[in-house]
Each structure stands twice: as structure tokens, then as C-alpha cells.
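::Amino acid chain::
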Amino acid sequence: MYDAGILGPKTIVAHAVHCDPWELEILRDTGTWVSHQPRSNMNNAVGAAQIDAMLAANMNLCLGNDGFSNNMWADWKTAYLLQKVTYGDPRRAPGDGIAKMALVNNARLASLFFPNQQIGKIEVRATADLMIVDYRPYTPLTAGNLPWHILFGFEASMVRTTIAAGCVLMRDRRLLTLDERAIMEEAKALAPAVWARYEQFARATL
């Protein structure tokens, strides 16, 4: 990829699980983005990316989910725990490192491809993508310990309201722009045919 000129600051390398130190250095020096997908990697039993080394090298490392689900907080938690069990070291993947990947770097990456949008900020003229979380901590919540509150306290079911570009999409857990029941019924009706095509393809490749 390097010899072909593919790597660079507008290229995203997904997973990057089996990179040696020399390859990590190339990714860093070219400014290439790496997207860590911990639940997908576990599901496919392919290993764990060296995210501590990437963070220490100040690489462009962000957090994704490979379409595993839309619950990114689950990927926060998985990324946090996977490194510890993989390397047998509870100091691996600290909470602030996970937050840097998921909040700071994800916003930087999005801004790269949407340069006219102010992403990752709460200020006048910024893109108003917000969510309200019904979270009531039993210990003090500060800017310094927020990553650990997210890791150990936040759940997807706590999201009460979502706003995208200033438009309220969900209020008090009720979708305002989509018919959730109709979508669910259509998905259930289409699923058997999708699964049948998958089984047909699987048999053909055996």
C-alpha cells in the first residue's frame, strides 16, 4: 500500500491487527488513519490491535465498530477490556486513551471529510449533534473522570434525546422522524429471504 501511494492522511486502515513495528511506523509517518474495531476483531477471532503503541506514537487512531451495532459505548468498553486480557496487564488502554480515540480523534477524522462542518464542539455555528443522557452518578462527575464514568456507568438505554444538525430526532426515547414499528415489521418480513440468499451463497462456496 505504501509503495502504491495509497497511504496518507485521507486513507483509513481498518483493524490494523497484524502490524509489526515497521508497519506502524509507516502508518504514523504517512499520517494514515487507523480505525480500531474491537468487537468485530473478537467476533472474528483475529486478535487485538496494538492501540497502546499507536497512542504512544501519537498516531491517527480512532474507534469504529465495523457495523457490529450502533452502540459505540459498547466498543468503548470492549476496547478498554480487550487490551487488558490480551496482554495480561490492567494498565493497558487507559480510559483517557479510549476517550481520545472515540471523541477527539473521531471528530478530527469526521472534520477531515466534512471540512465545512464544525464537529466535536458545543459552540455557536458548530454542528449541533447532541444527545441527552439520563445518567445520575453516585460519585462526583468531572471532566477528568468522565471517560471512566462512560466506561463503567453509561448504557445505551440511558440516551433520552438525540439531536442532529439542530434537528431533534428522538425526544424522551420516542423517534420523531421514523416509524419504528413499520421499520421493524418490514425488516422481519424481509429477513427470511436475506437469510435464504446467504445460505445459498454459503453452500455454493463450500
Observations:
- Residues 12-205 form one domain.
- Residues 180-205 form the longest helix (26 residues).
- The chain has a mean pLDDT of 94.
